[in-house]
Amino acid sequence: MILVDLVAASGSAVYVLLGAAKWVLGRRADALTDFEASINVLLYVILLQITFSTADAIAGWVGLSVSLNNTRLVSALLQESSSVFANASRLAIDTILYVQTERAALAAAPITSPLASVLGAATGWSVTELSVVAIIYMHLSFASRAFALTAPFLATVGAVLLPIPRLRRWGGTFLAIYLSVSLGLLYSGSATAKALSNIRRPSPINPIDWINIASIVGDIAVALGEAATITVLALSLATVAGVGLAGVFDGIYVNLLRV
Q1: How many CA atoms lie within 13 A of 255 on its CB side?
Q2: What is the pTM of this model?
């Protein structure tokens, strides 16, 4: 955000010069207004740096190695999160197909056909859970990929607009969206990747897996379901935090005319 700092510093200097000129000309009230604008520009630049430092600290606290000041890195990590979400959705779908394939194989032979119904009953809840999880992660993959493209724009434009009094609300909104959604998606991607690394996938050529399929599928459903729950919770909290952060940006102002 060095460019943003330079632009803001230049704008602050312009306000100071205008205020000084008006003060000399005797227009004290107008001069105070310009001095006020100059102070607020600098105040919001400081607030911007504090906000990004705080966001980086939060990211480190939840186990993310990322600097939200680096929008290119954030965008790349969001693309990785999109791939993680896609892998989770694909695993859920593949597991459902594994169960249905085994049920079809059991139903094809008269001797084992009763076992198809037993397997269906034993895996019914997990197949339903995996169906929901597959849909959730599919759309999260789309969302993360799209946000990876818009994140640099939101961060840069938001940081530029924030110190400008008339455009401050838009700048604060853009920045709040960038910070909250980025943290939410990156943390969700990290939690999902951790869950995927610990999941045991059934093998189509292992007879032991054919016998224990209900247990294996249940474990996968629980692991992905837990990760999906954490994801939804993280994004919900990020949304609330984003709304609050936008309000903070919009609510800070120094008024010299009341001093």
Answers
A1: 4
A2: 0.81
* More reliable by pLDDT, 251 or 159: 159
How do residues 188-222 score in pLDDT, each as one tens digit?
999 999 999 998 888 877 778 777 888 889 999 99
Query: What is the three-state SS of 94-148?
Result: HHHHHHHHHHHHHHHCCCCHHHHHHHHHHHHHHHHHHHHHHHHHHHHHHHHHHHH
Most distant CA atoms of the chain, gap in Å: 102
Residue 135 corresponds to which tokens in the numbers above? 């849909």
Residue 165 is given by DSSP the state G
Q: Does the pLDDT of residue 58 top 80, yes or no?
A: yes
21 assigned to some structural domain: no
Torsion over CA: 61, 62, 63, 68 (sign): negative
Instruction: Provide the number of structural domains found in the chain.
Output: 1
Taking CA atoms, 38 is separated from 76, 202, 247, in Å, by 36, 64, 21
Residue 48 lies in a domain: no
- b (16+ CB within 10 A) / e for 158-187: bbbbbbbeeebebbbbbbbbbbbbbbbbbb
pLDDT tier for residue 185 given thresholds of 50, 70 and 90: very high
Mean pLDDT of the chain: 83
Q: Is the model's pLDDT at 259 over the cut of 50?
A: no
> Where in the sequence is the domain holding 234, given as residue range(s)?
65-251
